[in-house]
């Protein structure tokens, strides 16, 4: 294994920059490390040192610590050094470390070392990325659980059931003239059902994974001038979208990610929908109508000053199948009553908290987290489990007509899929796909 080095904090002017050296020759950096004027000769495991990094034209007061293989994040010898947060110092230090034959790490290569050394499996390696990338509390919880357990419980359950079936099938392969007894058939079907039940539950978590990562899409719609862009700005806490008292101000669809009560949300402001002769406005309105199809929740805005009219009813027709929250805005200028879920004034902020509470409830009903399955499957994991599920369902359907040889082949296929999932079997391409997403230093 190569010895690699990289900053594990951003390489920018900041308070502290930490670099990590990992690999069989990591302790060679001792060449540049001094404590009380003396070179460090042997690093003690998990000891923190305060000293100096001295190499050619640089010198810095540093803190460093070491981990001995295999008891480190990567499973290799590891030294981490924290410098004062000036990237010039760290660039120079790195240059000197390269002279020792230690190279700059590729994206995700520390985690890849951990995987190759068997410290973590591939599900856990992916969970490291998911944990850092998560934009919501649910996502963080899920990825942390995956990181801790690698979904061992689930994976082992499926594997054991597959092996149980395989042992029955293989016992009969050499005696093709004999049939499985009723008892053995029942045993096999029970195990097939166990697997199907578990897989269906697991696969259903992918929907939530998608919401957690891509965000729940919430479109703000309504006729022109009801305050859609004002509400968008209010929720984003910035003047992101142009607001004016001229109807037809917003011409484009504007999307922004925000966090609402711990949930990752994609908020979409749309052009006010009405019959218009303005060419550009018409294009914007068409865009908005298309966006409506993607929305998981629709915030339908009304105007409490002007009341409901034919335009509102036409828009209502467009979204009647959607998950709608009816929001009556401009409470501060209320002239009429409107049948709605909540009254607000974006101008004074009144009622917006109530709106957020209603939104939270709606989001929760979409981002369903099953108490037994808090670990959410990523796309790769979903695809692998889905392939196994399809195979198992076929096996169950055709159990009576399949030859034992074919059954054994199918069962081995499923076991192999699981091994690919956990990384017991892997290809360089697969690893590249997974680790290329990481940043350098992870
Ligand atoms: N009094 C009052 N005025 C508001 C309120 N919310 C928005 N407005 C005003 O209503 C006008 C229209 O607001 P916008 O946010 O641009 O409305 P819009 O729905 O995005 O309009 P289009 O982009 O044209 O579809 C602006 O003058 C806002 O300042 C409110 O709660 N009370
Ligand atoms: Mg607008």
Automatic annotation (TrEMBL):
(6S)-5-formyl-5,6,7,8-tetrahydrofolate binds at residues 20, 80, 119, 442. It holds the Pfam family MMR_HSR1. Binds 1 potassium ion per subunit. InterPro entries: G_TrmE, GTP-bd, GTP-bd_TrmE_N, GTPase_MnmE, MnmE_dom2, MnmE_helical, P-loop_NTPase, Small_GTP-bd. K(+) binds at residues 225, 244, 246, 249. GO terms for biological process: tRNA methylation; tRNA wobble uridine modification. Its cofactor is K(+). This is tRNA modification GTPase MnmE. It is found in: Cytoplasm. It is an enzyme of class 3 (hydrolase). One of its GO terms (molecular function) is metal ion binding. PROSITE patterns: G_TRME (PS51709). Keywords: Cytoplasm, GTP-binding, Hydrolase, Magnesium, Metal-binding, Nucleotide-binding, Potassium, tRNA processing. Its main location: cytoplasm.
């Amino acid at each position: 294994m190569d010895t690699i080095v990289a900053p594990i904090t951003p390489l920018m002017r900041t308070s502290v920059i930490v670099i990590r050296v990992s690999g069989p020759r990591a302790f060679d950096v001792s060449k540049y490390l001094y404590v009380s004027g003396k070179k460090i000769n042997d690093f003690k495991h998990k000891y923190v040192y305060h000293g100096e990094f001295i190499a050619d034209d640089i010198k810095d007061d540093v803190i460093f610590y070491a981990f001995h293989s295999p008891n480190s994040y990567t499973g290799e010898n590891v030294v981490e050094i924290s410098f004062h947060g000036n990237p010039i110092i760290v660039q120079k230090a790195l240059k000197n470390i390269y002279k020792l034959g230690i190279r700059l790490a590729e994206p995700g290569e520390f985690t890849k070392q951990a995987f190759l050394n068997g410290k973590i499996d591939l599900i856990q390696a992916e969970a490291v990325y998911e944990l850092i990338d998560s934009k919501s509390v649910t996502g963080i919880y899920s990825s942390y659980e995956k990181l801790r357990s690698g979904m061992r419980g689930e994976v082992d359950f499926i594997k054991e059931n597959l092996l149980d079936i395989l042992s029955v099938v293989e016992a009969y392969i050499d005696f093709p003239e004999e049939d499985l007894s009723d008892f053995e058939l029942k045993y096999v079907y029970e195990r097939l059902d166990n697997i199907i039940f578990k897989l269906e539950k697991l696969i259903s978590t992918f929907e939530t994974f998608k919401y957690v990562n891509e965000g729940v899409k919430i479109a703000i719609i309504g006729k022109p001038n009801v305050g859609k862009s004002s509400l968008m700005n209010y929720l984003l806490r910035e003047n992101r979208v142009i607001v004016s008292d001229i109807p037809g101000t917003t011409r484009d669809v504007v999307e922004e990610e925000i966090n609402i009560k711990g949930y990752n949300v994609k908020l979409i402001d749309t052009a006010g929908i009405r019959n218009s002769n303005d060419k550009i406005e018409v294009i914007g309105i068409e865009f908005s109508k298309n966006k409506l199809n993607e929305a998981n929740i629709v915030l339908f805005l009304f105007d409490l000053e002007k009341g409901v009219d034919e335009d509102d009813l036409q828009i209502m027709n467009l979204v009647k199948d959607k998950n709608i929250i009816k929001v009556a805005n401009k409470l501060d200028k209320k002239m009429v009553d409107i049948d709605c879920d909540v009254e607000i004034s974006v101008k004074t902020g009144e009622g917006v908290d109530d709106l957020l509470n209603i939104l939270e409830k709606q989001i929760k009903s979409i981002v369903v987290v099953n108490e037994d399955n808090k670990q959410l499957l990523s796309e790769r994991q979903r695809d692998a489990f889905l392939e196994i599920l399809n195979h198992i369902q076929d096996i169950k359907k055709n159990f009576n007509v399949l030859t034992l040889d074919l059954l054994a082949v199918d069962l081995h296929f499923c076991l192999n899929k699981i091994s690919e999932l956990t990384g017991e079997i892997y290809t360089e391409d697969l690893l590249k796909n997974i680790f290329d997403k990481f940043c350098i230093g992870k």
